[in-house]
Design goal:
elongated; 43% strand; alpha+beta; Nuclear Transport Factor 2, Chain: A; single chain; six-stranded mixed sheet
Length: 153
């Protein structure tokens, strides 16, 4: 084999290896940002930080809780959380089970567990949910585009 052929093969191998490392670093960085987003969502929910809701959701987001029509747009979603925070105290912990990333879209499958307390009479109920978050990458930030969940026991 000629030296120029060996050098070419070596150069191609280095490029392929470098691209693979760069892709892994981007994926790991995106995965870390997504985990941070879900953690921030948990904190916002548990601490009733209504002012942070618009930072978590994309402008065209859809919130799909069980037994309720879909709530569309970050403004309507914010009003929904305002109502929820006036009625309930949340103490939930989210456990991310799966993250799948494809360029500017991702989805997260998670389970959450904890308690929800009804404000009016301080009745506390155990809550177990499974969630799907569909995320969109806006500039360099991941935002919730669709949020769907249901209860399980």
């Amino acid at each position: 084999m000629k030296i120029s052929t060996k050098v070419s093969i070596l150069a191609i191998s280095i490029v392929v290896f470098s691209v693979g490392i760069a892709f892994a670093l981007v994926s790991n960085s995106d995965e870390a940002k997504i985990r941070e987003l879900i953690s921030e969502y948990q904190n916002v929910l548990n601490n009733e930080e209504i002012e942070k809701i618009p930072m978590l959701y994309s402008k065209q987001a859809i919130f799909m809780p069980p037994d309720v029509s879909a709530i569309k747009g970050v403004e309507e979603i914010g009003l929904t959380y305002e109502y929820l925070f006036s009625q309930f105290d949340f103490e939930l912990e989210f456990d991310v089970k799966e993250i799948v990333i494809s360029e500017n879209f991702a989805y997260v499958h998670s389970n959450s567990e904890g308690t929800i307390t009804l404000e009016s009479n301080k009745t506390e109920e155990t809550s177990k949910n499974q969630e799907i978050f569909i995320l969109i990458k806006e500039e360099d930030d991941w935002k919730i585009s669709r949020y769907i969940f249901n209860s399980w026991s």
